[in-house]
# Entry
Amino acid sequence: MTVKPGTPVSRLDPEQIPRRDALGLLSLWSMATALLFATVGMLRLPKAAVLASPSKKVKVQLPETLADGEPFVPPGRSMAVFRQAGQVYAISTVCTHLGCIVKASAGGFACPCHGSEFEADGTVRKGPAPRPLDWLEVSTSGGALVVNEGATVKPGTKVNV
Amino acid sequence: MSDGPAPASALQEFRDNLLAVPGRIVATAFRSGRPVTDRARSSFVFGNVFLHLHAARTHRWSLRWATTAGLGIASVAAFLITLVTGVMLMFYYKPYTDVAYDSIKDIHFVVPTGRFMRNIHRWAANIMVVTVILHMARAFYTAAYRAPREFNWLIGLALLVTTLGLSFTGYLLPWDQLAYWAITIGANIAQSPREVTDAIGITATFDIGGLQRMLLLGSDIVGEEALIRFYLLHVMLLPLVIAALMAVHFWRVRKDGGLTKPADVNARMGPAPSDVYPVFSEMPAKTYHLAAVVKGRSPAVDGGPEQTVPSMPHLFYAELGVTMLTLFVCTALAMVSDAPLKELANPMVPENPAKAPWYFLGLQELVAFSAFMGGIGIPMIVLVGLGLIPYLDREREGTGDWCGGPGGWPLVQRSIAFGFSASLIVETIVIRYGWLREWFPDIPQLVITAVNPGTVITAIYAAYSLWLVRRYNSTRAGALGLFTCFLCGFVVLTVIGTYFRGPNWQFYWSPSDWPGH
Ligand code: HEM
Ligand code: FES
# Structure
């Protein structure tokens, strides 16, 4: 049914919107748009710009007796540091599946949460983990080893010390 | 002022008014007089802001135990109990990582009645999850989601999700090992869309998983920011959301014409027993004038209030009864069983096994094969499937009857058998022979992500349900089969996750076989 503007259909269904209501509609829509923008603006708040987390750089002192290929886990850190043929590298022990801390051994890594297992170089051997363990950036500063938990490097990257 | 003889003076009048204050406060609190007559009770119900969520009269069918089993009201009661005990706990709980654990310990061991409150809070939360799921099942099996109640079913689903959200956010607050690792796993499930974006190589530009985790934790670790966010959600945001949703839910129950009733309900119920007071047994001669403009299905428009009794007191007694029963169960359980509290959270040593609350253990069982499909994909499929039910099943047969519709109870029985066998067989194969990576070590990650044992179970159930639709030539039959199967799958996975998974998520027949025990 087409209704000409200005003709009421019945007492209960009044005339369709005539031109003079355009202003009313306009104000409604501008209100809706303003609300939308306000909401989008507010949604920015919960996404932190600066992350409140402790420093990721860790000074590591490898024990003299550490054998080649044996993992060294600095106390309170989720990483394993290895020495091999005079070179040093670090692998994160945060499971790539759901973030549990894997156990490091000379033969590889094992996760207690859902049984993922990783080779000594971090590649997945078994279980639900979707990708290899991260290799972490190792550098030397003033003779000390520094591992950066926040920076990953290509697997296989070893540093001469 | 005008009643009684004119007072001698203004002072006299002042004195009279003062003396009359208590009586007048009572009188003015009841807008339509004290609810002592049937008529005054009706006005009391629709004149009171809380009570007017009820209709003034209730159909006798709705008051039968077999119609609802009281499950909706039990959910409300459990929620109110968590609300009250939760406010009590807030007197002492401190949402800061260095003191949160100690404050829970104080509540548990030092605060007078603290342990009791904490136990009741835990138990009521658990019971609420159970009753909400059972209530959904009752709405499903009595086909109560059909027109005009489709949208209220969706509101119900939102309530289900919010209920689970409340319980998940509450789980972190004690800041013990259980809490810390369950939330770590939960937050990483939120991040698991990365499995997909990684596989197609767009994580650098479009990292929806990382964003979700970041919004949840407010940081890249589970720390103070995460605790504050979970606290805010748990004590403020989600309770407000659930209260608003509940108000809409109840209002819709009322506006959609009360509870679902079979088409021939009046014939079925027969005349009311003579001691039920008072029952309308015939159409009133005149319907409300408003009926001319208000489109809809309030009882007065559709048929008149036959077979209805005043909500006050009949419905209110039933509601109070269910509430008291819920309260009794919660307090009784709280007296015999303490809420758990493990050691202080230790980000270096995962709890082994790290288990979420029991109703998430079915999901955790799936997540142990691939995070994205098990933790996000399949739950989404199930939710969307549930939401579609009322829009796909547009049939009329069996509305209001348990297992109503083509197939009926025999179909449900067969579906129970099918649902249990299918999920048990898949799980047996997985536990006995391993999963894709063990069989084909070089399989692409995307396949592992997508093909979870849960995917297989879902596909089997879906195929079975489609077959039912054809066999019975009815969508309702397919829905009956599918819903039943999913309940069975949920039970199987939850039981396995709860009782048969030990350290390293390995299968054990009993916790006494766990290594180190
Ligand atoms: C916090 C959660 C919930 C609460 C407190 C709640 C409460 C209620 C109450 C008190 C009723 C009145 C009848 C009864 O007691 O059964 C009701 C009816 C209903 N609920 Fe819920 N509910 C919740 C969740 C759900 C869920 C998860 C669904 C389904 C997805 C659902 C779907 C329905 C439907 C369709 C009705 C109408 C039943 C009929 O007409 O017979 N509700 N709800
Ligand atoms: S978190 Fe390591 S296997 Fe799940």
In short: Strands of chain B lie at 57-59, 308-310. Chain B has three domains: 1-31, 63-261+312-350, 360-517. Residues 360-517 of chain B form one domain.
